[in-house]
What we know:
By secondary structure, this protein is α/β, with parallel strands linked by helices. It is built from 12 helices and 21 strands. It has helices at 138-152, 181-191, 240-259, 288-301, 318-321, 328-347, 358-362, 368-375, 408-418, 447-452, 471-486, 493-497; strands at 7-8, 16-19, 46-48, 57-60, 63-68, 77-78, 83-84, 111-116, 122-123, 127-132, 161-165, 199-204, 226-231, 264-267, 272-277, 305-308, 384-388, 398-402, 422-427, 440-444, 459-460. The protein is globular, with a radius of gyration of 24 Å.
Amino acid sequence: xxxxxxxxxxxxxxxxxxxxxxxxxxxxxxxxxxxxxxxxxxxxxxxxxxxxxxxxxxxxxxxxxxxxxxxxxxxxxxxxxxxxxxxxxxxxxxxxxxxxxxxxxxxxxxxxxxxxxxxxxxxxxxxxxxxxxxxxxxxxxxxxxxxxxxxxxxxxxxxxxxxxxxxxxxxxxxxxxxxxxxxxxxxxxxxxxxxxxxxxxxxxxxxxxxxxxxxxxxxxxxxxxxxxxxxxxxxxxxxxxxxxxxxxxxxxxxxxxxxxxxxxxxxxxxxxxxxxxxxxxxxxxxxxxxxxxxxxxxxxxxxxxxxxxxxxxxxxxxxxxxxxxxxxxxxxxxxxxxxxxxxxxxxxxxxxxxxxxxxxxxxxxxxxxxxxxxxxxxxxxxxxxxxxxxxxxxxxxxxxxxxxxxxxxxxxxxxxxxxxxxxxxxxxxxxxxxxxxxxxxxxxxxxxxxxxxxxxxxxxxxxxxxxxxxxxxxxxxxxxxxxxxxxxxxxxxxxxxxxxxxxxxxxxxxxx
Length: 512
Ligand code: CA
């Protein structure tokens, strides 16, 4: 054993440390503080740095992540079987307060080259979006998108792509129940994403419950997109080729308009960055998420918008977030979103222990409390200025909590609807996640996975755990990468490889 043991404790109160060495540490290893390992401890797993009596608090990030259910001796491996999950923070007891908006030190002089839109937003891509009012037409739009890419796109060099905004909404979804507006506003707001430049084609069937007109603004004057519509059951079409010909002609009109757009200098304040995690491990809260949090603060200081999400992954840390709300109504909105989700889960007989995944646990995360404390690090330190319900569009610059499930695909879909123009995605275990509508920067939490997946990961934040770089250095690096990628000057791994996930709606209502 030649390698120096690397043990990470975030807070000096922590009575467990995380083994950061790539290959873990063997039983018998002597640590700097005199602790001798009683077990083999794999990379990312926790070791007791003090004796912890049965019923004692297990402390990581300076917070109680659980209670030991047996005597744990100093030097022992500490993982899920030894830890009792504490109750979630009570929502009624969290004090609300009004905090005057703090003066953040402004960060001037940063810009990117984006596509300016009529509504003042800026795109990082120039894409023709084809949305649908019902799942039945998804095969049609897929087929048409292939044809447009082959036959039309080469004629419009300033247009980056054409994308089918397919989803699984169908007539089975109960359309009048209280939560039914969530998937509908999501579909509508995705079409208004800045990367589509206000040029949208809606393909409908003709017999669906969600009539395509509902995807337009009630007040057409204020619509954020200029939509053309095609209804496949329209009597005037005889057969597929006539439908295809019609949508191809419409596509040319929109491609023509999009092709006239050029990238212009946009201030960094036009960035709308959506952040989320997928496949976290015990390093996520030490490396990738604090690095993302540092970059998040830079985005906010530059006047931009930053969203973090994933209700089940902030629920156990919400008592640390509510005090960061700029006023009591934002604090209350945050609590209301947590309560809504508690009820949603209990209505299905589920609870928060359904998260973390088996993979998260293999990565060293013992429970959802530990996961949440690491997860919120990506929100940085800025005040929370607004809270969005699922599928709502972003309203304010600064740090917003956009309530979404933690599911990578649903979170990404809802952040698209909120209007993100760039996505930052942290992973510890590795996932090929990607979106065709916005560039996705993939940040690895550990160097072992980042090296192994060298062509799938854009930034290796694992260097922080090994002491090779600081959080601040890597935070600046990520911020610089966001500007470069937003400008189209750097291609992210999932765009290079064409790795794109389907959109997945959050549809909490029943299906008939
Ligand atoms: Ca996720």
